[in-house]
Amino acid sequence: MLRKILHPFYVLYQVLFAWWIALLLVALAAIFISLFGHYLKIKNGDHVPAVIWCRLTCWGFLIPVKVVDREKYVKKDQTYIFAANHQGMFDIFVMYGYVMKRFKWVMKDTLRKMPLLGLACEQTGHIYVNRTTPQKDLLRRSISTLKSGTSMGIFPEGTRCDNGKLGRFKKGAFVIANMAQTPIIPVSIQGSYDILPKGCRCLHWSPVTLTFHAPVECKGR
Questions:
Q1: Angle, CA of 79, 111 and 56, to the nearest 5°
Q2: Strand order of the sheet with strand 127-129?
Q3: Chain centroid to CA 43: how far?
Q4: Which of 15, 102, 172, 208 has its CA 20 to 30 A from that of 151?
Q5: Cα–Cα distance between 64 and 97 in angstroms, integer?
Q6: Contact yes or no for 68/186 (Cβ under 8 A)
Q7: What would the pLDDT profile of 15-26 be if each residue is shown by its tens digit?
Q8: pLDDT digits (tens, 9 = 90+) for 24-65
Q9: Contact (CB, 8 A) for 78 and 212
């Protein structure tokens, strides 16, 4: 009930402040990611600006993020495939901002068209795919990323859910894990569907919980 009462004020806050800040942040993030990560090749030059961008975006929209069991399961010297459910747009900000480990996304090719950011992601090694992408090419690039010591982030459902419920998984994440013998860390995202359900044009306030689960080992399997 309180959320419904406060919603008009939250919409006004978005229009007057949050969306403008978000646009500025994404432009600055893209520039810094390209500059530090691609051109100057500074260590973590692509990762740190992205983390700052995503966290500031969550803060700018007043979205609280609770992280559960990250330190318990995510080891500093280990490479992982982070496999998360995909509830909505804010999954990107929550994952990139709070996983706290450098990783590359496997993302839809349509995202390449995003001004500035699409190019920055391509320059710094994120993997774009579409329905015509050969599986061998995806496997080769993914395994090369993992072998280089960089983790990967994948939404096994392949797209956002329609109703907040978990969808059917595609096999790509598991084939990659098997080929690279890299453990998968399942990640549960709760609350982001309520922020921007499919069909809505403005955000709704909702807290988000990011829960890390025990790694699924692939060695020897």
A1: 70
A2: 65-68, 208-212, 184-190, 81-84, 151-154, 103-108, 127-129
A3: 20
A4: 208
A5: 12
A6: no
A7: 999 999 999 999
A8: 999 999 999 999 999 999 999 999 999 999 999 999 999 999
A9: no
C-alpha angle with apex 114: 147 to 103, nearest 5 degrees?
A: 20
Sign of dihedral through CA atoms 88, 94, 66, 187? positive
Give strand pairing partners of 154: 83
Report if pTM > 0.85. Answer: yes
Q: By CB neighbour count within 10 A (0-12 exposed, 13-18 middle, 19+ buried), where does 102 fall? A: middle
Angstrom distances, CA of residue 60 to CA of 17, 105, 115, 166, 201: 8, 23, 21, 28, 18
DSSP strand pairing (184-190 vs 208-212): antiparallel
Contact 183, 217 (CB under 8 A): yes
* Angstrom distance (rounded) from CA 101 to CA 146: 13
pLDDT digits (tens, 9 = 90+) for 169-215: 988 889 999 999 999 999 999 999 999 877 777 899 999 999 999 99
